Amino acid sequence: xxxxxxxxxxxxxxxxxxxGGLGAETFEIRQKRDIETAFDGLIIPGGESxxxxxxxxxxxxxxxxxxxxxGGLPVFGTCAGLLLLAKRIENDEHVYLxxxxxxxxxxxxxxxLGSFSAAAEFGDMGEVPMTFIRAPYISGAGDGVExxxxxxxxxxxxxxxxxxxxxxxxxxxxxxTVHSAFLDMVxxx
Amino acid sequence: MKNERFELNKNLxxxxxxxxxxxxxxxxxxxxxxxxxACAVMALERIPADIRAAGGVSRMSDPKMIKxxxxxxxxxxxxxCRIGHFAEAQxxxxxxxxxIDESEVLSPADDKYHIDKTVFRxxxxxxxxxxxxxxxxxxxxxxxxxxxxxxxxxxxxxxxxHMRIMQSEIRRFGSMSADELxxxxxELAVPYDLAVYVHENKKLPVVNFAAGGVATPADAALMMQxxxxxxxxxxxxxxxGNPEKRAAAIVKAVTNYExxxxxxELSEDLGEAMVGxxxxxxxxxxxxxxx
Lengths: 189, 291
Prior knowledge:
The complex is a heterodimer. Chain A has helices at residues 12-21, 49-58, 62-70, 80-85, 177-188, and strands at 2-6, 25-29, 41-44, 75-78, 86-89, 100-105, 116-121, 127-132, 137-141, 146-151, 154-160, 163-166.
């Protein structure tokens, strides 16, 4: 099992470490030639969505990655990754990959002073610790979207077929539940 | 609670990794920086090169000016306060800045004490020239470190020197025995637990960026290859001939810092770089401020 981690900007090393701990092989995606050979799953990390979105486009990655996801490649987006996958962002005119039928709100909890940590149920997999850094949340989801977690009434994790997103950062904790769930998705695909 | 806040603040720096933080003086420049792919902007009234040229006492920027920049962009906004000036830091926290840079670029307000950053809820980034300075700042509550370099010169030599010293000391700490570590912590005047962290993890406990004198995509790639986790660009962008193009090129250079073919392409046709001043030509040595 080989998981590509988008390494244009942000906290990609933390995902590598997490997946390494679960025994999955990872590689970094920094440009087109990195995705010429086949792989089994994709992680889009936290960081700044404006930076990652711009680099995706300028490095000629957007269309290729979009096609892979539409073709069923399992993908997991955290924070900025959620924004890149969202079909709509309420307070931002950009649509980046736009493959997932969700509406997101960017910087939904305000500036850094609004960053917080919490714990909540993730699907039926029990309670997981959640770190929110200048985080978004999901304000609307289409029919095919399964809600995985809510914090304070807001949707903070969701799944639609081969796409999993969290507004929080499971790669920043020791708890491996969410990454394990993603690897299960990869195995089942 | 305090500990949790420090973790969240450290985490924000993790999200900035692999990115470029750009100095901006107006909302227009901030928009240019954001559009070019900056992962954060540093709001200040005068960029370091102009501070150098103007001379005199240099202070925290007008909060109104900083707010103008906060309203212009959606990425994190940082601002500088003087070393030891905790009242300036309180003001920056009150306007909900995302990161405070307790910076040697401004005139120090205290020639002995840095700010006790543990009592603040917003994160701090501090400059360091070596491992000792870095760990002392972290002990005071800094959630991110950057090399000092020599700001406003367009000369990367000091940033290189500081990053090399830091990396070399980290390697040295990594290979020490337990008894050597006690002595090393004492010599650097740093807490033993932070020395142990470096020994065990072979890295700083917080994110480490390069800053000071970065002016070209090649400079940025050099700093990344030397171990920086991201880059601050101060005067280098808006003191150059074509800020938009240069900023975007530096952003791409930080992502693909090991790909010489791409770096060659990015370095083409960028217009005039900032003129810069050489090390032996500067009168005011900012890196000496705060130890």
